[in-house]
Amino acid sequence: LLLLFLAIPDTFFDFFTDQESLQFQAGLQGERANEFLMYADTLKSARIDVFRADVFRSLIFIGLGIGLLWFFAKLKFTRPVFIVILATLVIADMWPVAKRFLSNEKDRGRYVKWQPESEARSFFKITPADQFILGTETGRNPRVQDAVDAAVSEFRLSVKDRKGMRVSEDEVNDIRFAALRFNTDYRVLTLNNPFNDGRVPYFHKSIGGYHGAKLKRYQELIEFHIQRDMQGLLNVMQNSPTREAIGARLQGSEILNMLNTKYIIYNEETAPIVNPAAHGSAWFVEDLIIAEDADDEITKLGVISTRYEAVVDQRFADQIGGFVSPDSSNAAIAVETHLPNYIKYIYASDVPQATIFSEIYYDAGWKAYLDGNEVPYFRANYLLRGMILPAGDHVIEFKFEPEGFATAATVSTAFGLILVLGVVFALYRHFRKEEEDVEY
Prior knowledge:
four-stranded antiparallel β-sheet; five-stranded antiparallel β-sheet
């Protein structure tokens, strides 16, 4: 098998990620097709060379291993000698690979490949794109700026007792962006392999990111719609990135807009694309379209205007029955608190409103409250939340309160108390018995 890999590697592997393949296909359709083709060929050749080098290396060690086993089977040497030679082969195999990542190499008394502890406390460094988002969000909202400043001041006070260790700017940036995440509701999409990316979610609420246990409906949304919206943006950026072309493409990116994608990072070293078409945390729609099943729902989602329409599975038809789109109204809704387990909205309208919330529908844990009273909510647009809100001024809250977790916590606490009481009682009986034995 390794000989086949060595001889014809591109028969088994294409040496490009799915996202790279999409980018190259888009580039080959543009004016710079020859440049993209040359780059793709060069990149593929370089990766094949690295692949072949490791395959050849593996063949050498497999050959040595086979030879060692053959000589040992023929009793040419004893077991201790066999173990020593085998251990030597293992070390010879692992040592140079480990040296690719770890070494004690020094330059002028300092380790070359070891990271200073002060730098290691922060996993990622901010980019100009991140800095732009921070400046934009704090500049437009003094409340966010105050929250960020307060978090940084509190952090600096908390680390004053560090002896001989300075606070790095990366650590301070971590605090800044943590405060930013807790006080804003925007989301960010990077066009560079977003669904295997850990850097953007480190600093922002993200459309992408990676997790081994993905929500099935979100993965289906990625495959059916989000990748299509992304490909449209990539085509524009690679061929005709004018302000008008980008704006038109953003207006047509219905799925990204309903996910409140406010910033799109095309190049980390420059300012991101600001998306004025993002729908925000919550918005009102005029029409609710009933879908027969999940297939019908995700299909209809690809053709509606998500700003004015929403698709609802027929299983939730009883919650929307009787809703009539208002001819005109004076209505507004705004998010006041946006935490991982608690979201609060302030709402006012003179007529009932069909409202879509840009949050994942998950009735196994998330509960909805209207003015403190629990109310039902439905799934809209395949995976978001929807409610028919009554006229008037109201407070809407979503709280993450999974019943199974609460039950388990109660049972755990109860058994913990029983265990403590049992230990106390056992100690009491033990010392009481010793006293009785002494008196006797």
